[in-house]
């Protein structure tokens, strides 16, 4: 019956103190003297991670009671439910949580005794130098778990449920008495409670608690405490991973060495080459242990390359907790390991993971119906989906999280999320869900990466530069049709798992009208706020993000920068908006740096006529050559036809057309006379022309290479320079190619150029290109493409909006005829 004995060494480290096993036992006995318990009497433990939490736990077990561990962050209202449900005899709490505890007891009227850990003194004077555990068939632990619906349920675990997990780990020699284990996760979850607390103490290891949870404190602890094992969640290891890989990728030698180690996959070699990485973790790490949710396989793979094994397992509170585990030396990134001894596991016909054995809970406290629904014929139904490959488990999704579309198609959101996250560093968190009947990506950006890469167009960059890459290769029913970019973290459990069922309410809250917030009273804020209210036609909160919350598009950001310069007399650029991304932050900057406020509004004419240095392409000879080479293709394969060419002339114009395919530029080139073509200039994003070869092509095809994330105003000024030089510009006002064949909204940049420079717009429409060459295909299909030029639109006596509307309507009527 002995569980913890005197190993004659340090058991717990906390806040500069080393607490021996002997003292841990004495303190636990002293705590036990405050408890009058019979078998399976329940004791609530409600306190933060600290030695007293373990003293409390061990004391209850030593007295043959049942531990009920609760989240120490509960307020009194949240705590009330658990006080009513648990039928506990005592609640052991800390001074920090005493007031919350007593208020909840008073409000509920339940009868249980409060024991404040800080008031307990070391009074034990007995000779016993060990602590006992409950009997094997007794309920030793009750933890609450909640699903997407209903009240939280108390999971009753016997000591034997827990013991079978311990025996499985013992087979693989996971814990050693020489281990020093960092307890970083809250211990009301079974994974850290057992993995970083109770089991290590039973093996003679040392548990290290952190009083302060910060990056600096974690680093200091790792270096000074000989940590050999960290029990953490994927987010922790992803944080470590990012910091390490950023440094490696910024150094050519380090990248080469990493590639070398990646090829050989030899732990000993990797540990020598990346000795500094290991020293950063204190130099003693045997394993990282990851649980709570699935770790991104690339993270596990990269740590292996660095010489660090990340051991993953799979389980749930109801299985105490593990069903599978990865022994040292058998890490396979993406896998949750092998089935533990004494555990049966199988995959049901619908893909659900089922398990049977000594590890399966006794049941849910006072909920026989819920127990019968979860455990059927001895098999626990996990609700997770998975596959067994060569004896290893791969978790593929959550049954309840599968999205079932109206056409009956099933979508696993985890697969989509993994694909997108793997291909960008601009996203901190994301989740795919169905929202407003559309498959929606909810994205919380990595604002540091956004800042480092100079991205000022966050929403557009994520939508077209990230999510659209996934859509291009996805079948129609799996395409993401909407993207919600949010300014705060997604709702998650304490272990970092996204609470997907909460996403609709989360988004509703984001999209709801702003609540009344007390606004700053200084003049710069008032002027800026009034301007933004006029632009968006709604209220503006001080903490509103200029792009994510207010939805300022590219042109509105340019207008804002111009307004800041003319009204406040400051030098304004995209970097300023990155550094001061909310209304109040920007206003505070203006308060500090502006001399006087002269509200003159936005003057596009002034913006466009600003003198800048522009180096135009040398010629369009490659464009003319490409036209010659492609003529047979357009004549025989795509059957190109044109009309309205009489509306095309030599004088400077803006060609504005709909955007159906990647071939639209070539279709327009084929239709334009050569003398017009050689004087016509296109815009292209810098990412498409960033190699020396592509730059040479751009320089000889009248392509103006622009970066929309860096000085968009300069892009428009470049186009204005071209038009003022007597040349033509070609603009596709939708900004992106059609994804479904329908025309999108036209952005007004071409109308601003037309109006302010008094340059006519020649609308042109393209038909058949989407059907021949839709987005995501590599080669066009044979078909018929048509292009038609329309009467010029003269901007005099018209607003920007009227120019846009008239241009779009002419094209749309013909294209969708």
TrEMBL record:
* Annotated Carrier domain residues: 518-594
Pfam short name (any one): AMP-binding
The alphabetized UniProt keywords are:
Ligase, Phosphopantetheine, Phosphoprotein
Give GO cellular component annotations, separated by semicolons: membrane
CDD domains linked: LPLAT_AGPAT-like
> What terms describe the molecular function in GO for this protein?
acyltransferase activity; long-chain fatty acid-CoA ligase activity; phosphopantetheine binding
The UniProt entry, under InterPro entries, shows:
ACP-like_sf (IPR036736), AMP-bd_C_sf (IPR045851), AMP-binding_CS (IPR020845), AMP-dep_synth/lig_dom (IPR000873), ANL_N_sf (IPR042099), PKS_PP-bd (IPR020806), Plipid/glycerol_acylTrfase (IPR002123), PP-bd_ACP (IPR009081)
Q: Which SMART domains match?
A: PKS_PP, PlsC
Keyword Ion transport attributed? no
Q: Which reaction does it catalyse?
A: a long-chain fatty acid + ATP + CoA = a long-chain fatty acyl-CoA + AMP + diphosphate
Task: Tell me which SUPFAM superfamilies the record gives.
Answer: Acetyl-CoA synthetase-like, ACP-like, Glycerol-3-phosphate (1)-acyltransferase
Q: Known PANTHER family for this protein?
A: AMP-DEPENDENT SYNTHETASE_LIGASE DOMAIN-CONTAINING PROTEIN (PTHR43272:SF52), LONG-CHAIN-FATTY-ACID--COA LIGASE (PTHR43272)
This chain's protein is named Long-chain-fatty-acid--CoA ligase
What organism does the record attribute this protein to? Propionigenium maris DSM 9537
């Amino acid at each position: 019956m002995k569980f913890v004995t005197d190993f004659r060494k340090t058991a717990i480290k906390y806040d500069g103190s080393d607490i021996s096993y002997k003292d841990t036992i004495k303190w636990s006995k002293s705590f036990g003297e405050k408890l009058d318990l019979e078998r399976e009497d329940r004791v609530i433990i409600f306190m933060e991670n600290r030695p007293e939490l373990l003293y409390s736990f061990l004391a209850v077990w030593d007295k043959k009671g049942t531990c009920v561990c609760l989240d120490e962050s509960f307020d009194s209202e949240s705590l009330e439910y658990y006080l009513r449900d648990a039928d506990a005899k005592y609640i052991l709490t800390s001074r920090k949580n005493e007031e919350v505890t007593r208020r909840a007891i008073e409000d509920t009227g339940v009868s249980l005794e409060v024991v404040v850990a800080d008031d307990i003194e070391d009074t034990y004077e007995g000779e016993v130098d060990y602590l006992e555990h409950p009997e094997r068939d007794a309920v030793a632990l009750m933890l609450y778990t909640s699903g997407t619906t209903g009240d939280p349920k108390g999971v009753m675990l016997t000591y034997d449920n827990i013991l079978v997990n311990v025996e499985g780990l013992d087979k693989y020699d996971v814990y050693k008495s020489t281990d020093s284990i960092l307890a970083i996760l809250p211990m009301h979850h079974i994974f850290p409670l057992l993995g970083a607390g109770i089991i290590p103490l039973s093996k003679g290891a040392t548990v290290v608690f952190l009083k302060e949870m910060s990056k600096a404190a974690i680093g200091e602890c790792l270096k000074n405490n000989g940590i050999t094992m960290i029990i953490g969640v994927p987010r922790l290891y992803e944080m470590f991973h990012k910091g390490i890989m950023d440094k490696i990728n910024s150094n050519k030698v380090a990248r080469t060495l990493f590639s070398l180690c990646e090829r050989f996959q030899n732990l000993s070699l990797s540990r020598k080459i990346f000795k500094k990485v290991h020293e950063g973790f204190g130099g003693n790490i045997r394993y990282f242990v990851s649980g709570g949710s699935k770790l991104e396989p690339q993270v596990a793979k990269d740590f292996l390359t660095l010489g660090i094994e990340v051991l993953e397992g799979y389980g749930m509170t109801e299985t105490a907790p593990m069903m599978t585990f990865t022994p040292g030396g058998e890490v396979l990134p993406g896998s949750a390991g092998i089935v533990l001894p004494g555990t049966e596991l199988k995959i049901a016909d619908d893909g659900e993971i089922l398990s049977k054995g000594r590890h399966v809970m006794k049941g849910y406290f006072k909920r026989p119906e819920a127990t019968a629904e979860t455990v059927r014929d001895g098999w626990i139904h996990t609700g997770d989906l998975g596959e067994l490959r060569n004896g290893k488990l791969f978790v593929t999704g959550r049954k309840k999280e599968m999205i079932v579309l109206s056409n009956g198609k099933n979508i696993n959101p985890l697969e989509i999320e993994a694909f997108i996250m793997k291909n960008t560093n601009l996203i901190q968190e994301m989740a795919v869900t169905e929202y407003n009947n559309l498959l929606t990506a909810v994205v919380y950006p990595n604002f540091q990466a956004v800042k480092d890469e100079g991205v000022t167009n966050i929403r557009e960059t994520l939508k077209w530069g990230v999510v659209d890459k996934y859509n291009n290769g996805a079948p129609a029913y799996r395409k993401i049709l909407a993207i919600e970019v949010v300014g705060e973290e997604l709702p998650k459990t304490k272990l970092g798992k996204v609470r997907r069922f909460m996403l609709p309410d989360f988004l509703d809250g984001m999209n709801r009208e702003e609540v009344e917030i007390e606004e700053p009273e200084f003049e710069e804020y008032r002027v800026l706020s009034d301007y933004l209210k006029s632009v968006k036609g709604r209220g503006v909160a001080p903490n509103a993000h200029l792009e994510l919350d207010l939805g300022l598009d590219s042109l509105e950001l340019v207008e804002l920068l111009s307004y800041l310069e003319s009204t406040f007399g400051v030098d304004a650029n995209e970097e300023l908006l990155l550094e001061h991304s909310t209304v109040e932050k920007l206003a505070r900057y203006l308060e500090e740096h502006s001399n006087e406020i002269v509200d003159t509004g936005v003057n596009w004419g002034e913006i466009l006529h600003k003198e800048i240095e522009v180096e135009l392409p040398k010629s369009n000879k490659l464009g003319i050559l490409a036209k010659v080479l492609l003529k047979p293709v357009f004549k025989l394969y795509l059957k190109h036809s044109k009309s309205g060419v009489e509306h095309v002339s030599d004088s400077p114009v803006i060609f504005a057309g709909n955007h159906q395919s990647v071939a639209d530029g070539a279709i327009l080139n084929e239709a334009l006379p050569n003398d017009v073509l050689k004087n016509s200039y296109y815009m292209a994003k810098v990412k498409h022309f960033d190699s020396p070869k592509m730059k040479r092509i751009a320089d000889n095809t009248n392509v103006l290479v622009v970066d929309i994330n860096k000085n968009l105003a300069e892009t428009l000024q470049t186009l204005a320079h071209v038009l003022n030089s007597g040349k033509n510009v070609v603009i596709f006002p939708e900004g992106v190619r059609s994804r479904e064949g329908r025309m999108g909204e036209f952005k007004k940049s071409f109308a601003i150029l037309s109006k302010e420079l008094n340059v006519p717009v020649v609308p042109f429409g393209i038909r058949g290109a989407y059907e021949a060459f839709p987005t995501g295909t590599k080669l066009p299909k044979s078909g018929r493409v048509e292009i038609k030029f329309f009467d010029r639109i003269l901007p005099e006596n018209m607003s920007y909006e009227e120019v846009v509307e008239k241009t779009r309507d002419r094209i749309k009527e013909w294209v969708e005829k």
